[in-house]
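Checklist before submission:
- one chain only
- standard amino acids only
- sequence pasted in full

Submission:
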Amino acid sequence: MRPQASVWLEIAEDDLSTAEHCFKGNRYLWAMFMCQQAAEKAIKAVYVEQTGETPPRKHDLISLAGSAGILAECGEDRRDLLRRFSLYYIETRYPDKRAQLEASCTEEYVSQMMARTKEVVEWLKNKLR
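Returned file contents:
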């Protein structure tokens, strides 16, 4: 694995750990934000591994997956997950959208999304082996 891909992957795993910490502290919106960050950085690790270049400074996970050459491998379920996560990066910055997102962040929903994040990160890690 390229050294820079390894760094991106380490940060992704740290973000996933932070998501778990936020979840345990009932900070569900922030747990979702960190899940998005974990997925983003894992995709960027794949991008670096595939291209040898620094990943683009963008946060839309569908676009990043396309740039990394893995979007075609994502079924509709995984694409839907990436679209949902992208909302938590962008929309948490705006008060009207943030309140709406926060209301949807129930313990059960976030628990399911964290499990799906772990699956995606593991899938991406396997692409680096």
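Reviewer check: The helical segments are 3-24, 28-51, 61-67, 76-90, 95-104, 107-127.
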